[in-house]
Amino acid sequence: MVPGGFPSATAVAGESGSGKTTMARLLLGFIKPTSGQILYKGVDITRMDRAQRQAYRREVQPIFQDPFEVYNPFYRVDHVLTTPLRNFGIESEPKAAQKRIEEALEMVGLRPRETLGRYPHELSGGQRQRIMVARALLLRPKVIMADEPVSMVDASLRATILDELRKLNTEFEISLLYITHDLTTAYQVCDDIVVLYQGSVVEAGSVERVIREPKHPYTQLLVSSIPLTDRSKRWGQDEIPILLSAHRH
User: Fold this and answer.
1) Mean of pLDDT over the chain
2) pLDDT reported for residue 176
3) C-alpha span between 39 and 116 (Å, rounded)
4) Bridge-based pairing state of the strands 9-13 and 192-197
5) Mean pLDDT within 67-92
6) How is the beta sheet containing 200-206 ordered, strand by strand?
7) How many CA atoms lie within 13 A of 186 on its CB side?
8) Contact criterion met (CB below 8 Å) for 110 and 134
9) Which domains does the chain have, with CATH numbers?
10) Confidence class of residue 203 from pLDDT cuts 50, 70 and 90?
11) How many CA atoms lie within 13 A of 38 on its CB side?
12) Most buried of the four, 6, 77, 119, 121, by CB within 10 Å?
C-alpha cells in the first residue's frame, strides 16, 4: 500500500541475473535473507507464528512465469483452484466453492464451462496463465506478486493479461508487484519502478520519471533498448546494428 491506503503498483525491472526472482523468493518466504528484514504489517516474515504465516501466505499471492510448470499434467485444471480453498479452509460447502471458482474465472475473462474439467495440455498458454490469476483472486489477496507473468504468452494475449493485472490493482484494490525485464510493460501496468542491476537497486521512483529521465547508466541503457515505431520507414530499410556492449545479451 502507498501512503493514504491506496493499493500500489510497483515494477521491479532488470536483466536476467540481476536478482529479480531471488527477491521474489525472499518476499514469498521461500528462502531466508542472510541479513536485514522483510516486514509485513510491521512483522518480520521469518519470525511469524503459525497464524501470522498462514495469513501472510493467503494475503500475498504469486503468479509465476511459466503457466505450465505449476500444473500437474495428471490432474484437471480444477485441482489448482480447489486446492487453495481447501488448504485455507475457505468455502467448505461445495456449491459455494464452485460459485467462487466460477466468479474468479469470469473475472479474468474465462468461461467456466469451457475451462473446468479440462487437462492443462488442452488449454492454451494464455488460458493457463489466466487460471493462475484466477487462483490468486480466489483468496482475496492484499498483494499479488507477478514474476514475468507474460513472458511465456504470445503477443496477442499479452496486452489482455496486463490489462487484467492493472484492473486487479485499480478495481479490486490489490497491490501489485510486477517483476519484469520489459520496461514497456512496466510502464503500461505500474505507477512506480525499482531498477535492479547486479543484485542492487540502482534507481527507483515513479515509472513516468524513471523512464523519461533515467539517471543511472544502466537504466539509460534499458530505456534506450525500448523499440520505437517509425511509420515513415519501410521494413528492412535500415541495417540492423551489431551491438557489442557487454551489457546487452
Assistant:
1) 83
2) 93
3) 37
4) parallel
5) 86
6) 60-63, 143-147, 175-180, 9-13, 192-197, 200-206
7) 30
8) yes
9) 9-224 (3.40.50.300)
10) very high
11) 17
12) 77
- Quickly tell me which residue has 534507481 as its cell: 203
For residue 82, give the amino acid letter: T
pLDDT above 90 coverage of the chain, percent: 38
| HEC per residue, the chain | CCCCCCCCEEEEECCCCCCHHHHHHHHHCCCCCCCCCCEECCEEHHHCCHHHHHHHHHHEEEECCCCCCCCCCCCCCHHHHHHHHHHCCCCCCHHHHHHHHHHHHHHCCCCHHHHCCCCHHHCCHHHHHHHHHHHHHHCCCCEEEEECCCCCCCHHHHHHHHHHHHHHHHCCCCEEEEEECCHHHHHHHCCEEEEEECCEEEEEEEHHHHHHCCCCHHHHHHHHCCCCCCCCCCCCCCCCCCCCCCCCC
Residue at grid coordinates 520496461: 183
The answer to whether the CB of 90 falls within 8 A of the CB of 137 is no
Burial 156-177 (b: 16+ CB within 10 A, else e): ebbeebbebbbebbeeeebbbb
| Spatial distance between the Cα atoms of 195 and 207, rounded to a whole number of angstroms | 10
